[in-house]
Amino acid sequence: MSKTMRAYQLRQAGRMPEVVQIPIPEPGPGQVRLRTAGAGLCHSDMLAIHANPSFFPLPMTMGHEATGWIDAVGEGVEGLRAGDAYGVYFPWGCGHCTPCASGAENICDRSAQTPGFATGRDGGMAEYILVDSPRHLVPLGDLDPVAAAPLMCAGITTYHAVGQALGRLGPGSTAVVIGVGGLGHIAIQILKAMTPARVIGVDTQEEKLDHARELGADLAFLAGPATADAIRAETGGLGAAVVFDFVGNDVTLGFGAKILAQGGSLEIVGVGGGTLPVRFMEMPRDTSVTLPYAGAIGDLRGVVGLFASGLLHPDVIPIGFSQLDETYALMEAGKLKGRAVLVPSMQ
């Protein structure tokens, strides 16, 4: 085996990462090395790329959404078999605080001091992945690890967001998904699988609205000045019990608040950098605004279970290292239908 590998590394804040050759990492005590199957591209990657100064020590390999096959283990690691497929749980915590002890490392009490997977430590956009602990691995069994890669971030995040809102999504309720992209197209499927709610997709592109309908959305609306009134009309004037905003800019946040029902919840998942003024008497009564982040490892197991049951089909766009820059550009422009996944074995 070659002693070096390709990796897509962020080397200077404010500039796109580069494909470079770096040493293949050796697993230390308690660590696991995977041969990478797939690593998804996420909008949140752009926060790290465009940060000035960088959020994290550089250089850093990108890719917090990854799967692979067991390749080597460090001292003390038992029970893992070479060649078996696993997904990587990305929000690594300290492992010792109360949330971590319950599996909710996404809300680790010491997260600011704990470098995570592609958030301080090297991620999955490389030919091999070093995972700090077996507790951050979820078995995939016979599932296609490339097709499963989007579950590691887009899947767990949407599953967690829907899970937080289940109490509001009973019979006769309406859920609105703003942005039918990498996360939104998965959210529609999870909502249809886990709730009896009517699901409405909203996007700025007709192609994505067609995609929403194909995935089971009951209605799909093109975003525009009349969209809020149309959704109000479709809900008998009540509005949506839950609005999932997978964009998160000023326009979508304002739109989400405008269509929210009394007692509803606005779930802000997108990292568009928007601001939502929240004032008493200007929001519906008893509403909540939440900011779900990733999920507990149980959420990842849950979304993998939906995939294994055939209730969830991520729309994967496989790419090679040479296509990364152009694909990120397409993603930023909102022109990707589904989730782009780096497959290192592709030429």
Describe the structure in your own words:
The chain has 347 residues and is α/β, with parallel strands linked by helices. The chain has two domains: 4-153 and 295-342, Medium-chain alcohol dehydrogenases, catalytic domain (Quinone Oxidoreductase, Chain A, domain 1); 158-290, NAD(P)-binding Rossmann-like Domain (Rossmann fold, 3-Layer(aba) Sandwich). The protein is 24% helix and 25% strand. It has ten helices and 18 strands. Strands 3, 5, 6, 9, 10, 17 and 18 form a seven-stranded mixed β-sheet that branches. It has a six-stranded parallel β-sheet with strand order 13-12-11-14-15-16, with helices on both faces. Strand 11 (174-178), helix 5 (184-194) and strand 12 (198-203) form a beta-alpha-beta unit. The chain starts with a strand and ends in a 5-residue tail after the last strand.
Salient structural properties:
alpha/beta, 2 domains, seven-stranded mixed β-sheet, six-stranded parallel β-sheet, Quinone Oxidoreductase, Chain A, domain 1, single chain, Rossmann fold, 10 helices, 347 residues
